[in-house]
Amino acid sequence: MIEFKLNGATVQTDDAPDTPLLWVVRDTFKLKGSKYGCGAGLCGACTMHVDGQAQRTCVLPVSAVAGKTITTIEGLGTPQDLHPLQAAWVEHSVPQCGYCQSGQIMSAAALLAANPSPTEAEVDTAMAGNICRCGCYPRIKKAILASGESSSPSAADLATEVTS
Amino acid sequence: MNTTPVMDKKLISRRTFLRTSAVTGGGLMVGFSLSGCSSEQPVLLPLEGAYEPNAFLQITPDNVIRFYCPRDEMGQGVSTGLATLIGEELDVAPWDMKIEWAGVHPDYVNPDFGVQGTGGSTSIKAHFQHLRQVGANVRAVLLEAAAGELDVPITSLSTDNGHIHSGGEKYPYGKFAATAAVLKAPEDAPLKSTPDFKYIGHDFPRIDAVAKSTGTAEFGIDVDIPNLHHAVVRRSPVAGGKVKTYNAQSARAIPGVTDVVEVGSGIAVVAEKYWVAKKGAAALEVDWALPELARVSSAQIRADYQDSLSSEGVMAAEEGNLDTGFASAAHTVEREYWAPYLAHAPMEPMNAIVRIENGEADVWTGSQGNVAPQGLVARYAGLDKEKVRSHNTYLGGGFGRRATLTHVIEATQVALATNKPIQVLWSREDDIQSGIYRPASLMRIKAGVDETGHITAWQAQRVGGNITPETLSNMMPALLPGMVGDGVIDWMVGVADSTFAGWVVDGSSVEGLHEDYDLENFTVEHITRDHGLPLTFWRSVGHSYTAFAKETLIDELAEAVNMDPVAFRLANTRNKTRLNNVIKAAGEHLKTMQVPEGQSLGFAAHSSFNTDVAEIAQVSVVDGRIKVHKVVCVVDCGMAVNPDVVHAQMEGAVMYGLTAALHGKLELQDGAIVQSNFHDYPILRMDEAPEVEVVIIDSKTAPTGVGEPGLPPIAPAVANAVYAATGQRLRELPLQLA
Questions:
Q1: Which helix (H) or strand (E) holds B306?
Q2: Tens digits of per-residue pLDDT, B604-648?
Q3: A32/chain B closest Cα distance in angstroms
Q4: CA–CA gap between residue B734 and residue B719 (Å, rounded)
Q5: How close, in Å, is residue B734 to chain A by CA atoms?
Q6: Are the beta carbons of A15 and B275 separated by less than 8 Å?
Q7: B611 and which of B49, B82, B574, B637 could share a cystine (Cβ 3.0–4.6 Å)?
Q8: What does the domain layout of chain A look like in residue ranges?
Q9: In chain B, which segments carry CATH 3.30.365.10?
Q10: Domain A84-163 has what CATH class?
Q11: pLDDT for residue B502
């Protein structure tokens, strides 16, 4: 039995210890926001925060997160209560197919937590592990830089309007 | 048998093909009805007291307005675009409607195809008139109902975002749902004129942006149902290989593995959790009977294509007289161009859920045509189509890949064999190595130009496989009625195969090789060489390679007569007004660009899917490495229904095209694909992504496609910039300096 914190709640699993965290979160805890893209830590679609650090969870055995704190996209914000980054994502109409965006946002959130005002080059470096096949990169970058400067209340208002 | 001459020189376009196959498909080509009054009713959510005027709209008494989106959302923004069309005339903000994915019904066919499918950059164009009319008709009924209930003249009423205004009061549409339901909708309510548009032509966030930024958008992979079991399939390393023998012992030894079953494509291992099934599949020992393709490697394919260039092909298009044309040329340039096989690699790998219970079935998968999963499950489970409910979801990328659904067949076969609800999920390795591909192409163009810069002759050839036979073999089982047996399908596909190989040109194979320029003397010839790797549509299809050949050669012709590449293109597109205008606009833009020291510009233009695009690439080459700093994209797509979505599609197409231009390459070793995941099939990443500036030509004409047309010009624009930077003409994709 492996125990860890998932979006604030303490959870336990008897999945095999070599099961990647991604599949424990998706199949056992039924949180489907984090995605499978490559299974090899190459695309970033599965990115979650492990003790605040962005990690590729498709190659992270669940045994390695015993006692740790995990945050997924569901723990970052919700449609009714968007994280400022998510609001910026909406304001810039970042997503196309949207499949990679949970991972993109989790990587970006970890970057901004460590470096609230990154340069363009720092954004490039921090986000180079996340592939977007639709090619939303210019908008991802804009959204991150916009959130970095301020939390953009106009974006949050706009997003609320769209969801309501 | 003396029928060949009739078919000679015939060109079958993708659209003609789809129409033809739909007609062959036994009455599937049903005209859409605005009133939704076909024999079988479309399946809408069961909602008490809802007004359901047609297959597209449902308005509840508490004023929840649902739009059943007939096209598939794969990122191209179609749900935003189509909601905008219907919402404009219904007078409801697109973001205030709830979007549901349409089930299978004739009313949801793509008017451009005659089948319920999404592709070919057709959706906005095909539904522009249609869905606005649906919206206008329903608004007219609501007004009539309101006039009756409120006992006021209809002319005193107005509407605004789902409400009817009357004498200072406003009433939700839903208040009149019951009355409207007993009235007959008009079929031709007047449409707004362009200046009155509230939503069309205006920017607002995509309506799916919140769901896709919060992890709450449901993709096929995310669907969960009670007792769902996961299956991982081990497939032949070479396409078309069959299981000879297998040993399941070590797979069954993995705790949690519930079943190991043989299916058409290989051996499936089943468990309650995906990871367990994955471990089980890895532990299997399988011996394969390999097909002819296993004798083939990349070098041989290339050599076969090269040899074939000198053999006689089938004429796809011709006009004038080549001899006369070349005789009047001052310069003749002849070049060869190569484009490799490519995988689509959408971020969401292929997956499908199939549940078969009590003689009925459900299938959940994100597809580019909800009718196909229904047809496949019905055929492979031996059920009537009416007994199969097909549920669409968001698609984690399409690009043509999600029109081929062998994963649905696998899920059906595993569900039948195990009597369990099954999700089949492909790994990324499966996606790259067991998929269906953009064909490789060898092209040769010989062109003549006179001293004034006029193209006098154009002789183009393309060698490679055709996508239509493969597409037929994948679509026929889905679209044909169950009574048409597999033997007949095999026969039809066989006929198609030999037809396209021998005497009819598959239009997709050569599209874009000659159409854009004013050519009086030209031929386009096709030589089919197919080694058996499965082939299909890949974003922009034939244009993805023909534009590269055509637009880099055009640069060489301009240079031969010492003309500016933009001026040369303008001089040779006088009869292609819209393309000429786009080239002119891009040329003006180019003159204003401040190019930093060490960077060079390249230009290309191409017309595809009724849309004209010119692109400028700003490039540097350092230590043999090509870096694209900026791309300017000028597009005329008619009226931009949502300009920001058009921008996004151009940006995305540039990135998708850059991946192909700079990295994309699949190779075969003994018939097996060498590449396997993103380490050796690299996708453009943020640190390589250029700034993209999009300029939309202001237009009042009806919209044309935007999903694909941004892609074809980018590879030649970059190649032309690399020439400007280095003096090297690159004629192979991906671009690599000597």
A1: helix B298-308
A2: 999 999 999 999 999 999 999 999 999 999 999 999 999 999 999
A3: 6
A4: 10
A5: 17
A6: yes
A7: B637
A8: 2-76, 84-163
A9: 31-213, 309-342+438-726
A10: mainly alpha
A11: 67
Cβ distance B349 to B459 under 8 Å?
Answer: no
Task: Report DSSP state, residue B302.
Answer: H
Q: What is the pLDDT of residues B74-121, one digit of tens each?
A: 999 999 999 999 999 999 999 999 999 999 999 999 998 888 999 999
How distant, in Å, are the alpha carbons of A159, A162, B127, B207 from that of B95?
Answer: 11, 6, 19, 5
Backbone angles phi, psi at B417, to 5 degrees: -70, -30
Please answer yes or no on whether B689 and A135 come within 8 Å at the CB atom: yes
Structure tokens, B154: 């209809």
Give B 377-416 residues with CB within 8 A of chain A. 394-399
- Give residue B598's region: left, alpha or beta (phi > 0; psi -120 to 50): left
Any chain A CB within 8 A of the CB of B650?
no
3-state secondary structure B118-133: CCCCCHHHHHHHHHHH
Are the C-beta atoms of B454 and B573 separated by less than 8 Å? no
The correct CATH number of B309-342+438-726 out of 3.20.20.80, 3.30.70.1070, 3.40.430.10, 3.30.365.10 is 3.30.365.10
Q: Whole-structure pTM over 0.90, yes or no? A: yes
Tell me the ipTM for this assembly.
0.93
Cβ atoms of B641 and B701 closer than 8 Å: no
> Alpha-carbon distance B561 to B14, whole Å?
37
A141: chain B residues, CB-CB within 8 Å: 686, 689
Q: Which amino acid makes up residue B124? A: I
Give the integer Cα–Cα distance in Å for B421 and B272: 10
B205 at A interface, C-beta within 8 A? yes
| E strands present in B83-182 | 98-101, 158-160, 163-166, 169-172
- Chain B residues within an 8 Å CB radius of A106: none
User: Count of CB atoms within 10 A of residue A144's CB?
Assistant: 28
Q: What pLDDT is attached to residue B475? A: 77
State whether B210 and A35 contact (CB < 8 Å).
Answer: no
Q: What's domain B31-213's architecture?
A: 2-Layer Sandwich (3.30)
**B627 part of contact set with chain A, CB < 8 Å:** no
CATH number belonging to domain A2-76: 3.10.20.30
> CA B416 → CA B37, B154, B226, B391, B425, distances in Å?
35, 58, 17, 19, 17
Sign of CA dihedral B22, B23, B25, B28: positive
Half-sphere exposure of B655 (CA within 13 A, CB side): 30
Q: Which two tokens stand for residue B21?
A: 């196959």
Paired sense of beta strands B11-12 and B505-506, if any: parallel
Structure tokens, B177: 């749902």
CA distance B395 to A59: 24
